[in-house]
Amino acid sequence: MRHLVDALAWIADPARWPGPDGIATRLAEHLGYSVVGVLIACVIGIPAGWLVGHTRRGRGLAVGLSGAARALPTLGLVTLLGILLGIGLVGPVVAFVVLALPSVLAGAYAGVEAVDPLAVDGARASGMTEAQVLARVEIPLGMPLLVGGIRSAFLQVIATATLAAYVGAGGLGRYLFLGLKTQDYPQMLAASLLVVALALVCDVLFAVLQRVATPVGVRRP
Fold first, then answer.
1. Which conformational region is residue 168 in: left (phi greater than 0), alpha (psi within -120 to 50 degrees), or beta?
2. What is the pLDDT of residue 109?
3. Checking phi first, is residue 56 left (phi over 0); if not, alpha (psi -120 to 50) or beta?
């Protein structure tokens, strides 16, 4: 309990928020790393997922690659990429992309696959091309599952972005590893609490976005 009180006092100290090593800067870095990693994963995973979901081809390969990516040890991957790509931000961001890609890919193809076949057949019967069916029917109706996949990926990356500090980058992990090095347990706990708080705020925002992305006719009250 004493460590928790000390950690909350550490966070509440106004002197710890400003400056290049302040909490505000580290929060922005942590969030920035997460956003960049997930955005790159979306650029890769969303078109691939839509293609797989629409054509029903390559699903086994997509599932296999997603499972293999999920099985990779994140700390080992960050360390390996740090050695290969150099100390800094590039290695962690590549690792975050690998971590986020399975959830984004799964959300994209699952959303398209989940669309009612009658709606798809009706769109084709009305004369729509395959591209129009995908753009006007499957993507809008599959958007909630896609947002859910991005939500899952983003929360995973936020929780893992602390490892960026392990290879010389910034973020909230700086406090965690510095506290571990100096045996400053309140600082370590404070860093953990900040990561949890950031994840909870982002989860709430994504929950709202997921509801907005759900077509009105299929929303649950």
1. left
2. 95
3. left
CB 92 within 8 A of CB 161: yes
Q: With b meaning 16 or more CB within 10 Å and e meaning fewer, what string describes 89-105?
A: bebbbbbbbbbbbbbbb
pTM for the model stands at: 0.93
Report the Cα 112 to chain-centroid distance in Å: 20
Short-list 127, 111, 108, 126, CA closest to 48? 108
CB 135 within 8 A of CB 120: no
**119-145, pLDDT tens digit by residue?**
999 999 999 999 999 999 999 999 999
Task: Give the model's confidence band at 28: pLDDT under 50 very low, under 70 low, under 90 confident, else very high.
Answer: very high
Q: Which residues are CB-neighbours of 33 under 8 A, at least 6 positions away?
A: 89, 92, 93, 96, 157, 161, 164, 169, 171
d(CA 217, CA 114): 16
Output the six-digit token pair for 197: 């708080």
CA distance 108 to 88: 31
Separation CA 92–CA 74 (nearest Å)? 9
Domain 2-215: what homologous superfamily? MetI-like (1.10.3720.10)
- Residues sharing a CB contact under 8 Å with residue 183, sequence separation 6 or more, in sequence order: none
Integer Cα distance of 30 and 23 in angstroms: 10
